[in-house]
Amino acid sequence: xxxxxxxxxxxxxxxxxxxxxxxxxxxxxxxxxxxxxxxxxxxxxxxxxxxxxxxxxxxxxxxxxxxxxxxxxxxxxxxxxxxxxxxxxxxxxxxxxxxxxxxxxxxxxxxxxxxxxxxxxxxxxxxxxxxxxxxxxxxxxxxxxxxxxxxxxxxxxxxxxxxxxxxxxxxxxxxxxxxxxxxxxxxxxxxxxxxxxxxxxxxxxxxxxx
Length: 210
Ligand SMILES: O=P(O)(O)OC[C@H]1O[C@H](OP(=O)(O)OP(=O)(O)O)[C@H](O)[C@@H]1O
Ligand SMILES: O=c1cc[nH]c(=O)[nH]1
Ligand SMILES: [Mg+2]
Description:
Distance between the termini: 35 Å
Strand content: 25-35%
Number of helices: 6
Bound molecules: 1-O-pyrophosphono-5-O-phosphono-alpha-D-ribofuranose, uracil, magnesium ion
Radius of gyration: 17 Å
CATH topology: Rossmann fold
Function: Catalyzes the conversion of uracil and 5-phospho-alpha-D-ribose 1-diphosphate (PRPP) to UMP and diphosphate.
Helix content: 25-40%
Keywords: Allosteric enzyme, Glycosyltransferase, GTP-binding, Magnesium, Nucleotide-binding, Transferase
Number of strands: 13
GO molecular function: uracil phosphoribosyltransferase activity
Catalytic activity: UMP + diphosphate = 5-phospho-alpha-D-ribose 1-diphosphate + uracil
Organism: Herbiconiux daphne
């Protein structure tokens, strides 16, 4: 697995505001969207393109267009939904699939309550969105669903990750073509499986349920 941790003052600045307990939901939502747009720049570095010829007002020239089949973007509900618009703004032609997962806060095991993905992903570049990579259980299961449909090229974008989650994902995806793009790699998980220092529960902070 390739791991890319962002190293950019603008990203670190926005993450600092996102982490702050005093940041209200509307600001949190805007920042999550802005951050994914910045991270998507790195995550889409190898997006497949093909040459196209166009006419400018001055001359004919060759550029590129995103290739068919279009990339698939998969937010993991709920919190991943807060990253969807930032990603589709950058890749408007992408198709969107959905996975709904929730982690049992006692066992830390994820369960899947919604799954809406194309049947055949063998030719598709897939981009999975979830702000938090904690134990790695949710993201490993999500990427497992994509592998089951034949996906061979998967990039996950997370705002924050814990070393424990990165290691678990590495193990779960061994031998596969997976890239992980992180806004920051935090210190550790606490006894409740929360990322430290982290930002708390991303879903609750996005949707004001605290
Ligand atoms: O790496 P893990 O230990 O699996 O934890 C990370 C998961 O937990 C959060 O979702 P949550 O279960 O809180 O659901 P929500 O998005 O509905 O709040 C987060 O958005 C990830 O999906
Ligand atoms: O720190 C964490 C861990 C799991 N899920 C979250 O939303 N935050
Ligand atoms: Mg949550």
